[in-house]
């Protein structure tokens, strides 16, 4: 969460403003649109469901009237019990055929079945050829029933998928069971009649019995789009509704409910059971309730586009007159590296941005002036510091050196006296040369040899100094008196306290654009506490053994002051093993420094 807040805080003012307005627009228009569209969709849904309820009620009235019509036909047939007598077969067939012709859109097959199982049909020739295995079943059931009954849907060789209406016939004289009258209705015609006003692109219907059997029939004459909403099993012909879907529909409550169809969610409107024992269910595609409110979508979309356009104009104005000048100011500030060149802004206008630009220009002028004064003071400070360091020739060093010369003179070692005096003069001349504070590495090493010679005169063979300088490094630039304080430190603190001879090795090399100098001794070494205290020598009184007042800390500061903080000393030491000092300087030719000066 903190990372997310930090990331958002790094955004510019323009981005935050645009995000705020966009989110505000989204919440306002989105919320308003969602509420209005939901209300409109709800109103339309209620209207459609109400209309569906009316259609279903009317369909149920039609189905009840259909039942009444079938009952009337059966009653008329039952009054002609004489048609079941022997010798009446032709008359019975003619009567059945006449009834069937009068209602050919409703009835598919009519039968008269005697108690003995003899069957007379309106299509007697067809029946004699293909028969109907359901007739004996209906006869058996009728003997156990005292009134008319309606079968569950079944497949008939005579009528296809059908439902049979069966009425037992009794003898008027004996009141004994004499046979049955059977009407097989045309479910395809019945389905087509209802489909005329219920099957559309977005709606369809189903008729299911109270025993979860499908009544309506599949009509191959209808387009497949009429059956796309419901999950039909197309592996058989004619296709049948999926059994699982039928179970779900049967369990739906009366009224409107939601169910999943083959292509998405559906709204199912289920009627109560009619006289036939059937449920009529109308199905509406869920998207159907939204297609008539597209104009509302367009209105809200137009308003949203217009508002986004206003947001973009507002954002552009902020970017043009506020953000861009601020970013220009930030870019100018980021490019400030060298204060020798003033980076000013073109200030126009008297608004807040104009006043900010003028204040920035005034601030840069003050900073430039202060830096110039600071650089001049720093230059004078470095100049006087070098003069002070060069003048700090320790009197103890001169006293000790002169005492050594006096001792050599008493021993009549004239050559040693002459060489020592010559070396001392050269060392003092090198130290007091105030023309420049930069020398070549060759000159610095020569001064170091003179210093080491004087110390060897004093201490004899207590130490040896070895110099291994790469030829390409001798012409490089180095600050005067950089190596002498480090070698001096190695002699007096590392080797003199030893009871054996010590060695100081100096190596120089160039690595890429750096001059690397290492000073290694095999003296006493130091622990971490002593090593850390070396960089505090500046604040201590100079040792009486020092040639000058320049200590290790002073060398480090001088290198950082002249070459930058990325250059300087690295010291590694281990007690009883010795000390290694690594010096990193820029590999610059001395001639280039002189030309620059």
Automatic annotation (TrEMBL):
<dbReference type="InterPro" id="IPR004358">
    <property type="entry name" value="Sig_transdc_His_kin-like_C"/>
</dbReference>
<dbReference type="Pfam" id="PF00672">
    <property type="entry name" value="HAMP"/>
</dbReference>
<dbReference type="InterPro" id="IPR010559">
    <property type="entry name" value="Sig_transdc_His_kin_internal"/>
</dbReference>
<feature type="coiled-coil region">
    <location>
        <begin position="360"/>
        <end position="387"/>
    </location>
</feature>
<dbReference type="InterPro" id="IPR036890">
    <property type="entry name" value="HATPase_C_sf"/>
</dbReference>
<dbReference type="GO" id="GO:0016301">
    <property type="term" value="F:kinase activity"/>
</dbReference>
<dbReference type="InterPro" id="IPR003660">
    <property type="entry name" value="HAMP_dom"/>
</dbReference>
<keyword id="KW-0067">ATP-binding</keyword>
<protein>
    <recommendedName>
        <fullName>histidine kinase</fullName>
        <ecNumber>2.7.13.3</ecNumber>
    </recommendedName>
</protein>
<keyword id="KW-0808">Transferase</keyword>
<feature type="domain" description="HAMP">
    <location>
        <begin position="320"/>
        <end position="372"/>
    </location>
</feature>
<keyword id="KW-0472">Membrane</keyword>
<keyword id="KW-0547">Nucleotide-binding</keyword>
<keyword id="KW-0902">Two-component regulatory system</keyword>
<keyword id="KW-0418">Kinase</keyword>
<keyword id="KW-0812">Transmembrane</keyword>
<dbReference type="InterPro" id="IPR003594">
    <property type="entry name" value="HATPase_dom"/>
</dbReference>
<dbReference type="InterPro" id="IPR050640">
    <property type="entry name" value="Bact_2-comp_sensor_kinase"/>
</dbReference>
<keyword id="KW-1133">Transmembrane helix</keyword>
<dbReference type="Pfam" id="PF06580">
    <property type="entry name" value="His_kinase"/>
</dbReference>
<dbReference type="Pfam" id="PF02518">
    <property type="entry name" value="HATPase_c"/>
</dbReference>
<feature type="transmembrane region" description="Helical">
    <location>
        <begin position="304"/>
        <end position="323"/>
    </location>
</feature>
<keyword id="KW-0597">Phosphoprotein</keyword>
<dbReference type="InterPro" id="IPR005467">
    <property type="entry name" value="His_kinase_dom"/>
</dbReference>
<feature type="domain" description="Histidine kinase">
    <location>
        <begin position="479"/>
        <end position="589"/>
    </location>
</feature>
<keyword id="KW-1003">Cell membrane</keyword>
<keyword id="KW-0175">Coiled coil</keyword>
């Amino acid at each position: 969460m903190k990372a997310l807040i930090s990331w958002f805080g790094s955004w510019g003012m323009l981005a935050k403003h645009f995000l705020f307005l966009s989110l505000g627009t989204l919440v306002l228009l989105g919320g308003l649109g969602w509420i209005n569209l939901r209300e409109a969709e709800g109103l339309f849904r209620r209207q459609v469901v109400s209309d569906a309820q009316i259609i279903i009620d009317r369909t149920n009235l039609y189905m009840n009237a259909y039942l009444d019509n079938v009952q009337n036909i059966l009653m008329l047939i039952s009054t002609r019990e004489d048609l079941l007598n022997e010798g009446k077969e032709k008359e019975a067939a003619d009567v059945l055929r006449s009834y069937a012709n009068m209602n050919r859109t409703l009835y598919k097959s009519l039968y008269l079945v005697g108690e003995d199982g003899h069957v007379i049909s309106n299509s007697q020739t067809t029946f004699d050829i293909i028969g109907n295995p359901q007739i004996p079943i209906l006869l058996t059931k009728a003997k156990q029933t005292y009134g008319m009954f309606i079968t569950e849907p079944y497949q008939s060789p005579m009528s296809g998928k059908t439902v049979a209406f069966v009425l037992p016939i009794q003898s008027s004289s004996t009141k004994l069971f004499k046979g049955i009258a059977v009407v097989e209705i045309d479910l395809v015609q019945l389905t087509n009649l209802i489909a005329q006003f219920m099957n559309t692109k977005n709606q369809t219907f189903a008729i299911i019995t109270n025993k979860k059997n499908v009544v309506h029939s599949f009509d191959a004459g209808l387009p497949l789009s009429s059956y796309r909403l419901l999950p039909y099993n197309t592996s058989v012909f004619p296709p049948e509704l999926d059994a699982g879907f039928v179970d779900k529909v049967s369990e739906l409550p009366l009224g409107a409910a939601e169910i999943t169809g083959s292509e998405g969610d559906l709204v199912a409107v289920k009627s109560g059971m009619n006289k036939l024992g059937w449920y009529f269910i109308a199905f509406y595609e869920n998207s159907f309730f939204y297609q008539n409110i597209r104009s509302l979508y367009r209105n809200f979309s137009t308003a949203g586009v217009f508002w986004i356009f206003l947001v973009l104009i507002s954002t552009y104005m902020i970017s043009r007159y506020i953000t861009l000048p601020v970013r220009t100011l930030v870019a100018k500030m980021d490019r400030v590296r060298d204060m020798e060149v003033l980076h000013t802004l073109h200030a126009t206008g008297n608004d807040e941005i104009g006043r900010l630009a003028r204040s920035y220009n005034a601030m840069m002028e003050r900073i430039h002036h202060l830096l110039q004064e600071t650089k001049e003071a720093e230059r004078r400070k470095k100049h006087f510091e070098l003069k002070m360091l060069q003048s700090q020739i320790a009197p103890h060093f001169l006293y000790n050196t002169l005492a050594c010369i006096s001792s050599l003179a008493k021993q009549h070692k004239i050559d040693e006296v002459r060489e020592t005096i010559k070396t001392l003069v050269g060392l003092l001349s090198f130290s007091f040369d105030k023309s420049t504070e930069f020398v070549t590495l060759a000159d610095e090493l020569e001064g170091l040899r003179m210093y080491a010679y004087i110390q060897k005169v004093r201490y004899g063979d207590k130490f040896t100094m070895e110099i291994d300088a790469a030829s390409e490094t001798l012409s490089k630039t180095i600050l005067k008196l950089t190596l002498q304080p480090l070698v001096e430190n190695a002699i007096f603190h590392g080797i003199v306290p030893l009871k054996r001879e010590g060695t100081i090795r100096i190596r120089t090399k160039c690595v890429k654009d750096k001059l690397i100098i290492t000073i290694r001794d095999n003296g006493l070494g130091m622990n971490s506490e002593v090593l850390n205290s070396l960089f505090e020598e500046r604040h201590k009184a100079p040792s009486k053994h020092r040639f000058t007042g320049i200590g290790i800390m002073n060398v480090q500061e001088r290198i950082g002051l002249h070459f930058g903080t990325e250059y300087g000393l690295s010291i590694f030491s281990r007690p009883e093993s010795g000390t290694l000092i690594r010096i990193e300087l820029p590999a610059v030719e001395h001639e280039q420094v002189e030309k620059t000066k």
